[in-house]
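Weekly modeling sync, notes
Attendees: S.R. (lead), two postdocs, one rotation student

Agenda item 3: backlog of single-chain predictions. S.R. asked that every request posted to the team notebook include the full sequence so nobody has to chase files. The rotation student volunteered to paste the first one in as an example of the format we agreed on. Action items at the bottom.

Example entry:
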Amino acid sequence: MGLSTHVLDTMHGCPAAGMRVALYTTTAGAATLVKEFVLNHDGRNPDGMLYDHASLRAGTYRLVFDVAGYFKSRNVALPEPNFLNHVSLDFGVAHADQHYHVPLLVSPWSYSTYRGS
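Predicted structure, as returned to the notebook:
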C-alpha cells in the first residue's frame, strides 16, 4: 500500500535510470514540494515508496518528470525547443488505504500513464 512510480523509456526499451522526478502535494492549484529524487537502475525511486501506507493521505498530488533532461543525458538529439520538456501528472488519491502506482511510459515525443497496481 502507499504511493509509488516507475518510468519506462519506450524509445530505448528500458527503465529510465537517471531521470529526475519531483513529487508535490497540491491544494487549490498551489503545489508544495515533498521530495525530489533520481530514478535508480530499475526506473524507480531508490528509497522505495514515495509514501508508505501510514503516510499516504487522501488528496491531490503532482509528479513532475524531467523528460528532456533524461533524453539529453542519453545523447538523444532533441529539437529546440523540445517537444516534451517536463511531464507533469496531476492525480488524486481518494482511498489512502489502497496502493496508488503511477507509472510513466515516455519517449521524446509521447507519453502515457495509468493507475497501476
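Discussion: group reviewed the output briefly. The first strand starts at residue 2 and ends at 9.
Action items: rotation student to repeat for the remaining queue; S.R. to check formatting next week.
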